[in-house]
Amino acid sequence: MIEKKMMGWHVIFAGFRNVKISDPKALLDMVREASAAHVQIFDADMIAGFDHIYFSVLNALNAFNSGNRISENLAVEILLYASGQHQIRKAIEMLGVKSSSTRILVVALSKIKDDALQAMHRASEIVEGEQSDDVVEITDEKFEALKAAFEISDAELEATLRKSRNEALTSVLIERSALLITQA
Question: What's the pTM?
Answer without folding.
Answer: 0.85
